[in-house]
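User: Structure tokens for this complex, please. No commentary.
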Amino acid sequence: MSKPEYARMKFYCDEDLCIDCNGCVVACKEAHEVPVGVNRRKVVTINEGIVGKEISISMACMHCSDAPCQQVCPVDCFYIRVDGIVLHDKDKCIGCGYCLFACPFGAPQFPQDGAFGTKGKMDKCTMCAGGPEETNSPAEFDKYGQNRIAEGKVPMCASMCSTKALLVGDSTEVAAIKTYRSVAHGKGISTQSYGW
Amino acid sequence: MANTWGYGAMTNHLGDMQNSKAIIIFGANPAANHPIAMQHILKSKEQNGAKIIVIDPRYTKTAAKSDIYCRIRTGTDIAFMYGMIRLIRDNKWFDKSFINDRVYGMEEIFKECEEYTPEHVEDITGCPKELLIQATTAFATAEPGCLIWNQGWTQHTVGSSNTRLGSILQLVLGNMGKPGGGTNILRGHDNVQGSTDMGCLADTLPGYYGLAEGSWKYFASQWKVDYDWLKGRFKSKKMMEEKGFSLSLWMNGVLDEANAKNNADTPLKALVCIGNGISTITQVQKVKEALDKLDLVVFIDPYVNDAAVITTRDNNLYLLPAASQVECSGTVVNTGRSAQWRSKVVEPLYEARPDEEILFDFAKRMGFYDEFTAGMGKGKDFTWPEDATDEIARTLKTIGMQGRTAARLKKHTENWHLFDTTSLKGRGAVTKEYYGLPWPCWDETHPGSPVLYNVNLPVSQGGMGFRTRFGTERNGVSLLAADGVAPVGSRIKGGYDEITSVNIEELSGIKLSDEEKKLVEGKNWKNDDSGILVRNALKAGLAPYGNARARTIVWGFRDEIPKHREPLHSFRHDLIKRYPAVADIENHYRTTVRYVTEQTAKNWVADYPINIVSGRVVEHMGTGTETRASKYLAELSGEMYGELHPELAAKLGIKDGEMMWVYGTGEGKIKIKCKYSYRVDENSVFLPQNFSGVWSGESLENRYPEGTSPHSFGENSTQVTSYGYDQQTSCPETKCSLVRIERA
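Assistant:
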């Protein structure tokens, strides 16, 4: 008997297409009502203004298979869904910040106000998949934001991307889009002509 | 552009840019200002192999995606383009048959370009000649190439010449009327095309009908009011037909007593401002002075207009809360001339009211509500905005709005999944129509016209030649298209005049009945309510507006062919003798405007040695009144700054993040943060124009009514931009200015 195949959810951002418009950042914040100062997603620009060398890319939690955050968490608050989305339980999180040290992408975020200043419950990109609370419940929204995946919707950042640089979905689908774009490169637009 | 080939609008549309093989982005920054347009531009680059050429004083986010980047000094666009045209002429890259058949006056351009050798262009623009040659070669040899521009071209004393020469460049290469070609001006924001179509201008009635007596009489008939009653609303017939004050010059009507003679011997007394960021025009301190002096000021906006806190007046200042776009319904017109029906999402919140309700209320209290709403033809029982949309369709025949009824536009929006995003062509229920019925859409059976001036299509499928707008001949030379050039299926196989009751039978070959003759007597395609002229023209495959040549010479303009003229406050004082500004203009939109006097008043650059580059940031829109009220956008772009090249900053002794004072050539000064950046060259400072709420170092936050202040504030860059207005349109010069900078 063959094993059922599960999707493996991944982000991909094409730096040739990302124009640093921050549409993804604002879409994420508006969708999940994230506090000011907490950035689940960021656009990073390197070599800003240097002719021929400027590159922008949108970054968030990359939902690693061997997520270092999960491995270092002392209270084991992380869990990885069967589709690969890395989530965490804010009720277990003690705000120690180990995950931030372990993460190669700087994804974990901590509130900037409150008694502990930069500490507090960690917050990060959920790939719009909510958290351990009941799906689409007010408690889930309050702690983790929308659960668009449960509704069959594309995560907010990618759906708002103005140039379609940011892709998200089953890794085979994302790879297929990237492959299609590579093959189509320079081959011309197959557009209909005007008139009939 | 209207003066070159008939209409002043983007000739193609956003999706069509995917068909280009080369795209010049000149004086525009779509990555920051039109992110969605970048999707099409980058698709063209990646899939269609288009070369992206960016020509800009600043290495923008758009430039970061370019194949070729040319940095030029602000205000030298014309010299650069003449340099391109000269190379095209000498290498014979021009489209000879297109020029012969469809253009008037190209010899003059080929003569004018003679002095713009690559070396001379390098001297004027600062761009190495190798890059000029590389960019020209890439663009001229691509088939087809499209040209994109924006406010980087229009907001200059020679803005009108920039746009004309851009149009001419595309004529030289025969890139007009082609998929993937065209002049694609990206409109500054949502519905700008719609606003200009509706006559939000100082010199025209809706639909670009002008202000002459005939136009007023036509509009009186469309509005179903008596012409004499309408005339009676004005001080005199002369003032009725006179251009008004423009947005950039109205302050002079308040402040300058000498100007009263241009305004029926009276200064302006009141201002009603509906949804306009009036602080974005140059020398905003004059706006403040004028707002302070007026008897009455009214702002109608969803957010508190920042000009309302700039003024220090303490009485007769009214803020009327207007509904936002999601609280209203009706059409908006995009940059590609397509309309879209927008549905109301929620009822207006709190005290906000839709614009039309506010205006109806004004009309009622001033006693002309019945006349105001008569044009819809339904008496008191009209349905808003459907009946108004149909009135627009009936009335604005000049731009072919007849087919854009409310019912058809709603159907398009409801079925938008059935349209192809590149060609705009519909399927199923909307087959044989283009999305949003891009104008001209000649009648209710017409599909709209996605690409203007395309003779390779029948008129009934969106084809047309250039408009016959400037007569049929000049000095014995025909201005009509050459024989053999006409839209596919045209009965006339060459040029022809615009359609009138006199020539309709001859041109269309269709005999009119006596009854029809009576209906169209004395009419032409622009004012024939019976629709007979347009209908018969379409039957014969004729464009109602004629089939003529585009022209390079605009008789009556200050520069009959576009000429390079140094900015009034030029970084190159040594060049102003050879390329001086035009003479001062008396009564330019009711104002006396200085040109050469201002330019030669002193050696400006000696005291103000740094050049301004101005533009927008991606997070904010216009004055930022709306976007600075968003906490997330304010977080991303929260304060005013000036980008300085580290070399220049080092010379000035200013560290990254320190505050600096910027002094303009006028009276203005601003205190802003220094941001080190390699985007600008070593002579320039980049100033974003999206901030307001700080005035020469003083915060104006306390002047906002309680609970209405935005999340981020900053100095208006227009406090330090210099005096200057377009020599034809009076568009403000916000681009070429000089400043002095000191560490604060």
